[in-house]
Amino acid sequence: MYCKKCGKMVEDGSAFCPYCGADLRGQEEVNEAIEVAEATPANEDNGPWKVFALLGFILGIVSLAGSLFFIGLTTGVPGIVFSILGKKSSNPDKQAKAAKGLKLSIWGLVISIVVYTALFVVVTILAMNGTLSEEALKFFEFIGIDIEVNR
Predict the structure, then answer these.
(1) 36: pLDDT confidence band, cut at 50, 70 and 90?
(2) Tens-place pLDDT, residues 105-147
(3) 2 DSSP β-pair partners
(4) Which residues lie closer than 8 Å to 146 by C-beta, 6 or more apart?
(5) Which one of 35, 80, 88, 95 is most buried, counting C-beta atoms within 10 A?
(6) What is the pLDDT of the chain when averaged over all its residues?
(7) Distance between CA 119 and CA 113 in Å, rounded?
(8) What pTM was estimated for this model as a whole?
(9) What angle do CA 73, 77, 83 make, to 5 degrees?
(10) Rounded Cα gap, residues 19 and 21, in angstroms
């Protein structure tokens, strides 16, 4: 067994560590618990990482699918975060799912940014040319964008 204080190998059944003098009585139960924990299969997932991997994958799909409908920015960033956390899973299947979710979230975020930028450019050009209707100006004012048009 190993000493709980200094970590050196000590003869099984020793009452005290010959190196540091630590009391080793009752440590055999601790060592048995450690051996049981080490015997747990590596592909068994015993943490929240598998849930994070699944959430990252789902948010990645929603981000990519909703990127043209202005949902990609709100789901892309959380999808990236959950996918990165999901890659910590010890289950290879969950790691692969998290990696796919990460790619989908990044693509959804990139497409959303491109669409938002294009929309901003088009609206700016229309506003500068004075071709925006009164209804469009009222809509932008309603959502908090104040556009001054010189007509």
Answers:
(1) very low
(2) 999 989 988 988 888 888 888 877 778 788 887 887 887 777 7
(3) 9
(4) 140
(5) 80
(6) 79
(7) 10
(8) 0.58
(9) 140
(10) 6
